Batch of 4 targets.
Target 1
Amino acid sequence: MTDTAPEAVDLLIEAGHVVPIEPHGVALENHAVAVRDGAIVAVLPIAEARARFSAKETVSRPQGAVMPGLVNAHTHNPMTLLRGIADDLPLMVWLQEHIWPVEAAVIGPEFVADGVELAIAEMLRGGTTCVNENYFFPDVQAATYRRHGFRARVGLPVIDFPTAWAKSDDEYFDKAGEVHDQWRGDALIDTAFVPHAPYTVKDASFERIRMLADQLDVPVHLHLHETAQEVEDSQKQYGQRPIARLDRLGLINDRLIAVHMTQLTEAEIHLCAERGVSVVHCPESNLKLASGFCPACALERAGVNLAIGTDGCASNNDLDMFGETRTAAQLAKAVANDAAGFDAATALRAATLGGAKAIGFDHLVGSIEPGKQADLACVDLSGLESQPLHNVLSQLVYATGRHQVSDVWIAGKARLASRTLVDMDEDALISNARQWRERIATLHGRTP
């Protein structure tokens, strides 16, 4: 009788806890995740993993919790370079009088590439491995994310006025087709249509988007019911609330990624549930801009898939998904007047698998299951701020800061190792961001 030779794997991550997300609400003690060719092979007790596998590399984190990488389901990451430029203002004043004029002065491929690169570093240091992006120059965004091995659904913008990206409706759509074709089939990058919002996109463009989204099999990602003013203006202009208008145009379906959703009736909540719409909750941006409160508990109880996003750094002002998830959970309870609502396990699911499902990546990421990509984050729970450790899921949601993220992998490749960025120069990133600060001040004739 011969012993079976150990199975070869590229990476074995051993941890005090593994939080797989699926099954729901589970934390596995003293478990390991085995990775081969960028994919998860097995999740099993450490002793069994050591007996079964021969690993090229073993990472041991006995006081760490390994979880799926966080999925930031709504961002404008080039705007990381506009962090803090126009604070403490309502949405439309913030947009029309500050953000759009600044963008007009600085936006271009270099601004987009540098903003995305800075955002990638910030996200990796906070345990985020996947993003749903919404900004101009998607070709530059996609190339930057790909260069740094970061997973992204990159938006193809459509808006009713000329920008540095496109000057006419036809040019927006022609360029969208080109970028989609360029990145079709890529292992890390995919695309979505991102019509900005109902108040900046005409019916004819929405109809065109619906047709193309069906043909190309891509999602539609937009700001929707973000403010009471948006709803009121839509009723005056179209005689309908924005959701009703989009329903008339055939867009309320399982391709729709609806962001913000602070102004909802019970009927609209149930319509979203019936049609398979995903909702992205961006609580800190909504709070800071005084836009309203997403009824997360009501949506979740109706069966709507919920995701969490930070929005852009110009309105948040960070890309901290741990902080965002904590705020999302706490705000949901307050809005529903229910301390038991949107519990830790539900919030953590929204920040991982919910986001992956919203953007159509749930077959790839969002949970630690064999066959999925090894997009993983390890959180160090050894510090006194994490003691005593009664409940790992509660700890991750209510008492964890992004500074506790020790390691991050995307498709099994280390992107953050023992708190150090891999293949990214932190000092150079900081220096470049400071140069942009001076450049923005000069171009726009102001001090950010």
Note: The mean pLDDT is 96.
Target 2
Amino acid sequence: MLSRHFLRAKVLQVLYAAKADEADVLRAEKLFEVQLRRLNELAVWQISTLFELQKAARQVLEAGMTKFRPTPEERHPSMRLPENIFLNRLADNYDLRHQMEHYHVVWDPADDLFCKLFLTFRTSEQYKEYVAEIEATFESDKDFALVMFKYLMNNDLVRDGFYERALLWEDDFDQIAQYAFMTMRALDETLDESTEFRQMSDTRNENDAEAMTFATQLLRDSMRLYDENVELIKTHLNGWEFERVAQMDVLLLVMAISELIECPSIPERVTIDEYIELSKEFSTERSKLFVNGVLDKLIIELRAAGRIQKSGRGIFDPSFNYEEYSNEK
């Protein structure tokens, strides 16, 4: 589920922390494992907000029915949300229930946050249209649950609650919410207790397992080759003092060199693109030009020395003009 770009970003963050703490490879790998577990935990907590809003809806609607003088709407409320087919099947799913138990996902019963959220949400056009539907189907209920999920993930009170629970979740909140949304959207009417509910990083899935192997090995290689790669970088600074180079740029280049050398199936152009994008996300405004320029020269040197050996789809394309590519970037 987690993209390789996202995993590269996580490796970069762990590498930064490991170097700042002078950690060895084993400690860096443990930190990486903890990071991924926290992402799985974040996704489960995010999905659990759907059940909390559904529970709050039932409480509010039932409370309205017991008023001394309920309105006609309160006396006969629509129970579409409490009886949502998709959410009720999802709540019964063994995989998801196990994950919620594993991460101790329990919201404070004394907190009336979700009741307040429902009172606001039920005034929306989406809610009014949903409860006005005559026939409830799995697909229509799933579509509405996803609308609810977007509402919850974009609510400032919900987000603040997550950030208070774990400060590091703020950086990954939106990306993991998107992955959780995609996971739920992929579920169909076969959803039941025994359906496999994928985690954010799920080694039961072949693609996830391959991506995890790639990321873990990239971290190991970057740690192992760090000093050697730094010396390579120093030879291509074109008058810049190494001490003036941003630490994040050094780490990006160390990772890129490690990937170029140790990942024969990944095309050189893919590696270049990935680390230029990461430099835009994590480093200075000028970093993309610096990273691109250094990589351009390093690739030529490493290829000439026979240290880059690509195979399959990653094989070197002799018609590719790296100088022109650098100018385009």
Note: The two ends are 29 Å apart (CA to CA).
Target 3
Amino acid sequence: MTPTKLMISSSKGGIGKSTVSVGLAHALTELGKTVLLVDLDFGNCCLDMLLGLEDEVLFTVADRETVLRDPAGVLLHPDWPEGDRLFFCPAPRGGQYNPEIGSLCEVLRALEDACRPDFVLLDTAAGIELPRALAGAYAEGALLVASQMPVSLRAAENTARALEDLGLSHVRLVINNFDPDAVRSGERCGILAAIDQAAAQTVGVIPRDRELMLAAERGALPGRKSPAARAFRNVARRLMGEGVRLFDGIPSLRLKKLL
């Protein structure tokens, strides 16, 4: 069975793209799926830290010959109850790696063959350059991570159009770090206005969650009942084809005043 290959992308830095990558990967493994998660943010890689694996890294996606010879030996598993279903390949530190796209895709296919995943999640750097290249060579879809700020939503709209023009069949929006208090005070737009501004089909809204932020700082996961964890499960289930509402199980986001 061919895996679903998705880039996790953003047009702006500091949006929480890598946190979304980890949260979604965990949600998919909770639901019984096998996930290959690859860090392709060569300028600011951090997935190893978010997964609590920074001391375990020996090889990275840049070690092409090692990956092609022994891809299973490069992949790491986080210390989760479902961690054996997540296969992680780190990125090199230092920001000096700039692979030719054909070589990178060869590495990705070798990693894919080693673990036979249901989903491949590629955490790319902020910007459009690498997603453009991967859109034509490997990935079949993208999750665009944006905040509720107007400049972020406009950037997501532009990126979605660019990737769809390249033939990606699955481009969806994830609104991250949604702040209900900012909506109540009138400082930020509501959920429906944010979705309308982005003009992209939305697959999830991740609420601001202190538990998630503190857990990420120590390479851990938030509790299953935290608002962010519930939201990530909703995204995962929607990606799996289930008809789940955006705010299922998150009463705090279903208030009319936030819409």
Note: The first helix runs from residue 17 to 30.
Target 4
Amino acid sequence: MNKLLTSLFAGLSIGFTAQAVEPQVLPINNKNLALSIYNGNLALIKDTRPAHLENGVNEVIFDGVSRDIQSETAIIYGQGIKVLEQNYSYNLINEDNLIKQAIGKEVLTVRESPDDGDNIFEKAVVLGVADGKPILRFKYGIETDFSGRVVFNEIPANLSNKPILAAKLNSETSGDKFLNLAYLTSGLSWKTDYVANIEDKNMLDLTGWVTINNESGVDYNNAKIQLIAGDVNIVRPVMRQRIMMAKASFNAMDMAEGVSVEPEQINSYELYTLPNITSIKDRQTKQISLIEKNDVKYFKEFNLHSPLYLGSGSEFKKAHPDITIVIENNEASNLGISLPTGTVRFYEKDKNGNLQFVGSNNIGNTAKEETLRLNLGKAFNLVVDGKVKKISEKELSRTGKDIHGCYNTGLLKTYEVSVNFNNAEKDDNTVVFKQNMSDNAKITGESLKSEAENAHTRVWKVNIPANSKTELNFTVEQKDNNRLCD
């Protein structure tokens, strides 16, 4: 491995002085490894590695950096050192790179005999590559669509089985020192999944699991992990064109037990520091407990946005309101913590104690004192019917009569709206009924008091006793302008 890295480094280090010592390979140090993982497939890797440096110019190679490192962000620093040059190689060993490196050279080819199926071995010179296939010159001619295989005698010195970060630095003194490496990389991501176990009508237990996914091409062993929640602005670099090897098709899951993590604020973001040192292998998914809150207060309401159009004789039948879980994110509700964006899945036990899934919804980044309103689905046993009927029309004005006998009229129309709520459940329920209103409309009478949600929406909270019905009635006056002709 050291010979391969040394050859690679020699290929990289154009401009390194001939007096420089042989490159020193720095293996991954597991004692001071830290990962800060952001939303949006981004992570900051912070690594400290021991090195013995001579006074003057030294050449070092950082083994085991991320395959998806953003090399322009790499920072190397340490006491009494100055970085003179750093190089990153991502020339990986794969079929495409091997063929390109063999251009102009003789290789061995293997193809199957059409007569008896035996292997036929021949030598050929690689002339180039077209559409991912080698162009080969045999004794009998040139092949551009060779159906066999190409056998390589050796691995070129400037190819590696993993990315390499190399540096040329100057040390003020000789001795054992620590070199710090920090860089940004893609390939690491995290998300939050919540489990809400409904205990009764007013309480639920909330557990939040953070899921970390590592597709960066390197293992992170014994690492301190911090998660940053929030939308960090990123200037994306132009991606290098390269051939990536196929990813493994497995997905490992490691469940780690923990307690609620209290976040801290950093530059208007939320920072979660996981309490335990952990390892995340390449192509592994790990789940770690982030939040555990018991006896969280909630209430359930049912919401229906009216499909009625005030201005015609519209109606609707058998509408089922949305089931909405409402949680106040405050200490009075036994919550009051910052909640990262994620999916909340709700479960409830039936009368036999069997756990049942009852719905899910997504939440965005939710700060303290915000209200969560999560729609779980449609209520089966709540049914609503509604209709609009015009009961009067009065002309207010008549203007602009033209030669055709046409004119503009101002009309005042009155509508009567009736909405019937049927509750077939064993419990009393409340339906929040919302009706859109135009700028020229006003309510002149109502059987239940409404409130204005905004300039164009009225809201009624309709209580329906168990196994009973409730009717909501209201009248609306609306001004309309029509053009009429005699």
Note: Residues 1-20, 237-258 have pLDDT under 50 and may be disordered.
